[in-house]
Amino acid sequence: MARSTASRWLIRLVFLVLTLGAAPLVQADITPPSDRIIDVIVGDQQRLRLPRAVERTAIGSGEIANAQLVSDSELLITGLGVGATSLRIWFEGAGEPRLYRLEVAPSGSLGLEGEYRLSQASGVPRMIGDTASLERHDQARQRFEDQPLVDASRQVGPLQVQADIRVIEVNRRRLESVGFFLGRDNGGNTQFAVGNTGSGAAFLNDGSLVPPLSEGFSIIGGNASRGYLGAISALRNNGFAYTLAEPSLVTLSGQSATFLAGGEFPFPARSSDGEITVEFKEFGIRLQLTPTVLDENRIMLKVAPEVSELDFTRSIQSGGVQVPALNVRRTDTTIQLGNGESFIISGLVSNNTLQNVDKIPGLGDLPVLGAFFRSTRFERDEKELIMIVTPHLVSPMAAGTTFDELPGDTLRRYDPTFLELLFDPQDARAIERLGEVGFSR
User: What are the residue boundaries of the Pilus formation protein N-terminal domain, all occurrences included (predicted)?
Assistant: First the structure.
């Protein structure tokens, strides 16, 4: 009786152990662990080494992969078509099979390393993963140009670019002119003069004379009381102008930002219903840039600078309004540089040359003496535009960040007394920027 009771308890214990041991095996059949996912590409083969001898195998879809037993414990798996399927292996002495997952990817996918990997969960290859390099993403994507692929990857890292721009316009001007005047007045109503009298007439009887060049330097000689006067006017002018603007543009990778330093001029335009409306056209210094973040330290920048100015010498009349023409200089280029590096755009040069000669026909062409019968003017205007662009990868400042004093804060709080205003005026340098404002690098 005791032996029979012990036997029944032993049978129950064995049944309990088998039941607990079978539970994880059934769960493994539903979702195989990551070490049981086998990646194969179309047309390639993978050798699978197993821990025990294999009794038989079964593949869910024979159009996607094939499994061939080459030895007691080795399988040769061949990728036949893009997709995913299951592989079940029955080992000798084991009742339940072991489940594997076969993911067959298009050819060329073995080069996906590091940030990217392929997933076949939906039966269509999906490229998933994160990367900070747009160049490596394009290289991985080009492997599947002729094959279906779902691109579910993401670009991480800073995606905002701040471009610090310095716009410099240099204007050089050179002017040379010379003119002569000789006059004779007999004291009555008869006057005689040779040369350029400038913007007015020459009067000898009262001792006054308008020089040949009103803006030039003149030498006047003679005796006005006797009616003899002469003048030589000459001018040489060299000018230099320097204009500087320092805008700072912030934009997302792949988006455009525009800067304009200039204005707009109105012109009449006829609408579709025949009415006259007023429209505006921009002119001045314009810069459009489009940054693309390639990786954590490389930026591709598409830059399109343009310089336009009003030209009234070629203006037209429209609706009773004089509409000027535009002189335009523009260029368009794409460059690649590192975070914080600078490049210079130059060569936007404009030259205007004017030479004018006023003379008496025949007499003005005489050698030596002809100089007294003509006036000459030479004018040259040269402009050059230089742009220095420095892009930075930036991120917004965290919420709650405290800022230093902004430009003008000191002057806004400045309330001097009469004595302070008289003896200790506010230093103009207080309006200078004290640091970077708005973004962190």
Answer: 36-104
Write a three-state SS string for 394-425: EEECCCCCCCCCCCCHHHHCCCCCHHHHHHCC
Domains of the chain: 24-105 (2.60.40.1080), 109-155 (no CATH), 160-388 (no CATH), 397-441 (no CATH)
Among 291, 262, 265, 261, CA closest to 280? 265
Tokens of 119: 């997933």
Predicted confidence (pLDDT) per residue in 206-218, tens digit: 444 444 555 555 6
φ, ψ at 340 (rounded to 5°): 90, -5
Task: Kindly report the three-state secondary structure assignment for every residue of 191-224.
Answer: EEEEECCCCCCCCCCCCCCCCCCCCCEEEEEEEH
CB 102 within 8 A of CB 42: no
Number of helical (H) and strand (E) elements in the chain, helices listed first: 4, 24
pLDDT digit string, tens, across residues 354-372: 777 777 777 777 787 777 6
